[in-house]
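Action item from last week, closing it out:
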Amino acid sequence: MATGVRISAVVGLVVVVSFELVAGNGEGIGGYLLQTQSGGGRRDLMLAGAVWAGVLGALINVGLVALERRAFRWHTVRTEASA
């Protein structure tokens, strides 16, 4: 169940950014990426926004993994001992 929550959180981030790109009026990362490409485009700012979205997804994943290890300490100890 914890793995499903972790995966759905990152997929949710991808869906939100994609929806903002399609809708065109978002104020989040997708809206920022869209604004950097309108009117000539600034590739450096678009790349910075894409990297920021990736870092945000990685931080969410790391945080949820840490929470999962803390909540299910008995499970991680058992899997580390068998490896």
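Closing note: The chain is about 85% helix and 0% strand.
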